[in-house]
Amino acid sequence: MIVATWNVNSIRARLERVLQWLDRTEPDIVCLQETKVVDADFPADPFRERGYELAVFGQKAYNGVAILSRLPLQDVRRGLDGEQEARFLQARCGDRLVVCSVYVPNGGTVGSEAWDYKLRWFDRLRAYLERAASPETPLLLAGDFNVAPEPRDVAFPEAWADSVLFHEAARAAFRKLIDWGLVDLIRLHHEGPGPFTWWDYRNLAFPRGDGLRIDHLLATPPVAACCTEAGVHREERKGKKPSDHAPVWARLNL
Amino acid sequence: MIVATWNVNSIRARLERVLQWLDRTEPDIVCLQETKVVDADFPADPFRERGYELAVFGQKAYNGVAILSRLPLQDVRRGLDGEQEARFLQARCGDRLVVCSVYVPNGGTVGSEAWDYKLRWFDRLRAYLERAASPETPLLLAGDFNVAPEPRDVAFPEAWADSVLFHEAARAAFRKLIDWGLVDLIRLHHEGPGPFTWWDYRNLAFPRGDGLRIDHLLATPPVAACCTEAGVHREERKGKKPSDHAPVWARLNL
DNA sequence: GCTACACCCG
DNA sequence: CGGGTGTAGC
């Protein structure tokens, strides 16, 4: 089976591209972020027509997460410890695999209130895992973590050193999450540098090759053990009306 | 030769549709209205590539008129008696034919200040013709006049009787303009009702057939005498991203 | 740059 | 409804 995550930067603005990618990729499970739509307006029908069950958790203008699954979706949990922002959505796909679609706060600028919120959000996510999950059971955390964990995850690390996406404090928060018991599926199959998953819309970042790897598929060891392949669909950052993020995918021999 | 007028409701939003229509229609002269763009941002290159000379007169958010011509453009005049609003543009196309792209004020609501301005604008246009033109020389006034002159120019005349587009005072102002010495080229070839040129974006006006004929090709007798055919490209109101206006065209055996 | 949003306008 | 404007967020 194929699992994937994609920050689509508005599911309504991106619908045609997402559907075409879906038809080409045929993933079994997809986590979406920044859907930017309230649940009543989520364009569910084209996904249902393609055989997916949906769990959606949206809000008015920002954020918004969703899970598409060809396996039966159950035990849906919306929000991290009952927060109102639509950044966390969990569901069980099929018998055992628990999947979380995650959109970590960007952090604004280093030192801001938003920055504090981002670092705390990592702590709260780790606390949630400690209390509600176990590294021994099949769990997939997929989403936009807004952190490039290591220098090889940044095309020009020096230029990004003080940014919210690569600041040492954000990387430390990400590492603490990993240390709970998660495996970075991309790094099982790619040494790097890259593959990158995000290029700023501004400053010609994509043509200049100024990418970061901030979208991740993180899984517990029983899931990671059966990951045979993983990658990034970089071509989705090209052409007309791309998201600023590319999809990240992994093949699981479950 | 073919002459045409089209209120495009933003040349930037409509560019692809206008170019495709141009390639299919191959008009020699086109008057555009509601280009909604300052001259520096007018997308001139695709028109030049197709063999047109351009005269443009635009402003920031509203209005904006342009003339495209395969014949040499000369003697360009911008604005009606030096007004700032981009509603009038005149040029000579080729040796003798003078062409004006005209965007008459809508008029807001009957009785408003905008309504007064609309009626006066017609007076000023007539005064301009009296002082600067002659019914004996080749002149084409093409544009959105925001007036349906007669009941046969409105699909549901009773419903529109008190509107700014069909109010008796607006029709009288239009008639006075015609009486200077202009011929309505569409009415040379169509008895009506219709053909209509505008359907409100709101209230499902197009599917309900609720159209008005408010865009006109008005010409002096020497031009009208060689008009062999005229019509409205109603299909341009269909499909994706249509303008609310359809192009009006005429064939001149000049 | 490319999303949203609110507002103005026909 | 579908253009324009501006502002905010990333």
UniProtKB/TrEMBL annotation, chains A, B:
Residues reported in the UniProt entry to bind Mg(2+): 7, 34, 144, 146, 244-245
Gene3D superfamilies registered for this protein in UniProt: Endonuclease/exonuclease/phosphatase
GO biological process, one term: DNA repair
InterPro entries cross-referenced by the UniProt entry: AP_endonuc_1, AP_endonuclease_F1_BS, Endo/exonu/phosph_ase_sf, Endo/exonuclease/phosphatase, ExoIII-like
Residues at the active site: 103, 144, 245
Site (Important for catalytic activity): 215
Transition state stabilizer, annotated site positions: 146
CDD domains: ExoIII-like_AP-endo
MF annotations from Gene Ontology: DNA binding; double-stranded DNA 3'-5' DNA exonuclease activity; endonuclease activity; metal ion binding
Domain called Endonuclease/exonuclease/phosphatase: residue spans: 4-245
Cofactor: Mg(2+); Mn(2+)
One Pfam family linked to the record: Exo_endo_phos
Comment on bound cofactor: Probably binds two magnesium or manganese ions per subunit.
Site feature: Interaction with DNA substrate: 245
Domain of life: Bacteria
Keyword tags: Hydrolase, Magnesium, Manganese, Metal-binding
Assigned protein family: Belongs to the DNA repair enzymes AP/ExoA family.
The protein's name in its UniProt record: Exodeoxyribonuclease III Xth
Organismal lineage: Bacteria, Pseudomonadati, Rhodothermota, Rhodothermia, Rhodothermales
